[in-house]
Amino acid sequence: MSMLKDIQKVFFSKEELEAIARRLGSQISRDYENRNLLIVSVLKGSVIFMADLMRNITIPCKIDFITASSYHAGTESSGNVSVTDDLSVKDVHGYDILIVEDILDTGRTLQKLSDIFARKGANSVTICTLLDKPERRDKSVKIKPTYIGATVENEFVVGYGLDYDQKYRNLPFIGILKPEVYDNTNAQEETH
Ligand code: 5GP
Ligand code: MG
After folding, report:
1. What is the pTM of this model?
2. Out of 105, 132, 163, 165, which one is annotated catalytic?
């Protein structure tokens, strides 16, 4: 059965998401001219945005992937963030790292990743997030995203890489699910 029956409302269409990737891609291409750009996609949520964004970046760059996990209870993330699959680049010295994330919520995940890259000696660390939920930011979080696709209210969104219970990532748009879809959710270890 189609996933479309579970969608309550579409927030960002395929065309709007493509326009975001174009806008941020050209900004990044200007800002990182003559730098040593390493784009790090946070798996799994950012893969679709990453694929669109990198095709709009016109300067030479390298790409890499990292997986961060935290203990989730349904749609809430906890503070315990750990790296479960590290970069394939072992020495980040000299790289200008751009972390690409699907959504910045409490900010704990990207605070942790930014701290790790800075401690390992990256030349610079900046953040490009498709979506930002500034209302939700944890008080302990210091990082600020340099590139933001769009700001969203405090609602749980899915699609274009973003999951609920590991599903709905393959929707070509971003929207919210009908409330009845969230019934029967238990605490679980979840990959971003
Ligand atoms: P943070 O550490 O900023 O609280 O959590 C960021 C991660 O939580 C995101 O990478 C994403 O996996 C998940 N997350 C936060 N808000 C949402 C949301 O509205 N929808 C989905 N699908 N995931 C979210
Ligand atoms: Mg997730």
Report:
1. 0.92
2. 105
Task: Supply the range of the domain harboring residue 20.
Answer: 14-70+79-155
Residue 94 lies in a domain: yes
How far apart (Å, rounded) are the C-alpha atoms in residues 41 and 59? 17
Q: For 58-82, how does the pLDDT look when each residue is reduced to its tens digit (9 = 90+)?
A: 999 999 999 998 866 556 566 688 9
CATH code, domain carrying 148 = 3.40.50.2020
| Residues whose beta carbon lies within 6 Å of some atom of ligand 1 | 45, 77, 101-109, 156-158, 162-164, 192
Is 6 contained in some domain?
Answer: no
**5 within a domain of the structure (yes/no):** no
Beta strands of the chain (E only): which ranges? 7-12, 37-43, 62-73, 76-85, 96-104, 124-132, 147-151, 157-158, 174-177, 187-191
Nearest atom of ligand 1 to the alpha carbon of 162: 22
Domain count, the chain: 1
* Centre of ligand 1 from the C-alpha of residue 15, in Å: 22
